[in-house]
Amino acid sequence: GGTGPNDCEEGRQQQQPPLPERDPPLPGLSGEQRAAAPPRLAGLRWHPPPASGMAPVPRAPGRPAGSPRGSGLSIAAALCPLHGGLWRSGGRSPGPTMSDCSPARRKICRGRRRRMAAAGPVCKWPRTRLPVGGASALCVFVLCWLYIFPVYRLPDEKEVVQGVLQQGKAWRSNRTAVTGFRKQLEDCCDPGQLFAMTKQNSPLGKNLWFDGEFLHSVTIDNATYSLFPQATPFQLPLKKCSVVGNGGILKKSGCGRQIDQADFVMRCNLPPLSSEYSKDVGSKTQLVTANPSIIEKRFQNLLWSRKTFVDSVKVYNHSYIYMPAFSMKTGTEPSLRVYYTLEDFGANQTVLFANPNFLRDIGKFWKSKGIHAKRLSTGLFLVSAALGLCEEVTIYGFWPFSVDLHGRFISHHYYDNVLPDSGFHAMPEEFLQLWFLHKNGVLRMQLEQCEAPFLKSSA
To answer: Can you cite an annotated GO cellular component (predicted)?
Structure first.
């Protein structure tokens, strides 16, 4: 009645019969367990187990017999539902193997081999282990991605408009909040000292790292050093400052007179100030920014249109033209050309070069507060500088949405409807941060048509 070891050898050497379309009922399994058996997986072959009692391992077509599997648990083996469960460490199965060679046991083993051959597609995964270094690199990549592009939801335009309307026109300056925020800016960025390149903060021979160019720097030589003023050319602190953005919400706002009442007016990106706009945006300017890309596109890098450029900036009177000459390599040459052009023509404007250390620190400051963008907008840079340089700050034209507070469509700029490159700036995020400062009394944001504001001061 018993079986000897030769019977086991015959069982190992016996050629496996072709698999039926449906596996026969397995001994010892209930109806529910049979129904839960995995579907057939075409292409997998089963090989007899070794004499040591190791459980059978599925081998994908094309793998030579006897090829080494390596130590440890492979991904495919760990996920295949062998013997009704996951493989144990070392590859041993909790169920019987062909080494236990009673006829009943052999039937069970053959049935289980058929079940394994019909395992689900997950068993076709490559039989390689995930390297520890690769797993670590993948985790680092995912964490970095979530840091740069976090999963969060910004409110839509209607929610923002409702929040602004609920706030109403009443606004109160909070001197405690103003002082606290200015202290934060001084600790991180020191606008009073680092706003512009000067001989004091950028001595001869200093190695200057660009803030927008990875691992690129320039050494300040005699020619560059001579372009800097001795110190920041403003009498600090400035009193009342207006920072004027270019948002379409300024159109028909009638804010020109109120803007010009400030002691110091800052503007963005050489905006038009002709008579058709002056009623809404004013005409006074103490500082205006000029991105090198504007010099390239509008004035052909000053190669053939130097006089055109000089004539166009006369509208800014005796003002400073603030340029990021040391942010990107491509911006250095256009910025220097602007400086030499104004000097050659004896213009009333003076070029100030933005300090890349200041721009870099301001970017880190706002990123820590939740703004995630490739680069901050020029407007937010100017507002940040104003909050560090001025005692009172009012901002105009900062509205990145396509409708105003009354649901009427407005253009992107007060002078055109050209949209910025998508994904480069984070205008809605910036607006929400500025609106938060408005609600806390740090600055005042003008969004309605201008009237005599009802202002209160609190200690």
So the answer is: Golgi membrane
Q: Which residue has the higher pLDDT, 162 or 202?
A: 202
Whether residue 241 contacts residue 367, with contact meaning beta carbons closer than 8 Å, is answered with: no
Q: Which residues contact 29 (CB under 8 A, 6 or more apart)?
A: none
pLDDT tens digits for range 235-276: 999 999 999 999 999 999 999 999 999 999 999 999 999 999
Q: Which domain holds residue 309?
A: 157-458
Catalytic pick among 83, 413, 425, 438: 425
40 shares its domain with 166: no
Is 100 in the same domain as 161? Answer: no
What CATH number corresponds to the domain at position 364? 3.90.1480.20
Each residue's pLDDT tens digit, 196-211: 999 999 999 999 999 9
- 412 catalytically annotated: no
- Give the residue with greater pLDDT, 16 vs 419: 419
> What one-character DSSP code corresponds to residue 402?
S
Whether 151 is in a domain gets the answer: no
Cα–Cα distance for residue pair 260/241, rounded to 1 Å: 10
pTM of the model: 0.66
Task: Write the CB contacts of 326 (distance below 8 Å, at least 6 apart in sequence).
Answer: 197, 208, 210, 211, 218, 332, 353, 354, 355, 356
Displacement of CA 109 from its chain's centroid (Å):
56
pLDDT tens-digit profile of 199-245?
Answer: 999 999 999 999 988 889 999 999 999 999 999 999 999 999 999 99
